[in-house]
């Protein structure tokens, strides 16, 4: 490749990464307000890309939902690394997890696939792993009940999802999620 071709190749990859990120964020917003069944054309319009660009990155809405969940999980993993030695790591991760649930509200239909969705199962396992050390530390500090196990996180996620599942407005959804989280924290204390 010539230097010009190499430079064009890097630009295209950078544009493709930017478009992918724009599509994911647009889908998060569209699905949060209109649900997973929202038209993908609305996602493309919100992202400022054409339908072809959207479909090149994501062949269907399920692939797009998985990408949003993947983005959320990476954020949780980064936060776990940032809070690695902090006593408040569990609370920070739990707050971030609930915030992602509020923002990604419309995607809960994708979770109904259960064991038919190995990529979602793998993402759930990554969340559980990210919480492992913060749970252990909070239990040692007496801030978290001793019988909580990492897999209980999936039940916590389901509880919050059921509370916000019937709330359409994102601000009201956030208030409902905060209240549910406060109640859950009382039950989780050591």
TrEMBL record:
<feature type="DNA-binding region" description="H-T-H motif">
    <location>
        <begin position="39"/>
        <end position="58"/>
    </location>
</feature>
<keyword id="KW-0238">DNA-binding</keyword>
<dbReference type="InterPro" id="IPR050109">
    <property type="entry name" value="HTH-type_TetR-like_transc_reg"/>
</dbReference>
<dbReference type="InterPro" id="IPR001647">
    <property type="entry name" value="HTH_TetR"/>
</dbReference>
<dbReference type="InterPro" id="IPR049445">
    <property type="entry name" value="TetR_SbtR-like_C"/>
</dbReference>
<keyword id="KW-0805">Transcription regulation</keyword>
<dbReference type="InterPro" id="IPR036271">
    <property type="entry name" value="Tet_transcr_reg_TetR-rel_C_sf"/>
</dbReference>
<dbReference type="InterPro" id="IPR009057">
    <property type="entry name" value="Homeodomain-like_sf"/>
</dbReference>
<dbReference type="GO" id="GO:0003700">
    <property type="term" value="F:DNA-binding transcription factor activity"/>
</dbReference>
<protein>
    <submittedName>
        <fullName>TetR family transcriptional regulator</fullName>
    </submittedName>
</protein>
<dbReference type="Pfam" id="PF00440">
    <property type="entry name" value="TetR_N"/>
</dbReference>
<dbReference type="GO" id="GO:0000976">
    <property type="term" value="F:transcription cis-regulatory region binding"/>
</dbReference>
<feature type="domain" description="HTH tetR-type">
    <location>
        <begin position="17"/>
        <end position="76"/>
    </location>
</feature>
<keyword id="KW-0804">Transcription</keyword>
<dbReference type="Pfam" id="PF21597">
    <property type="entry name" value="TetR_C_43"/>
</dbReference>
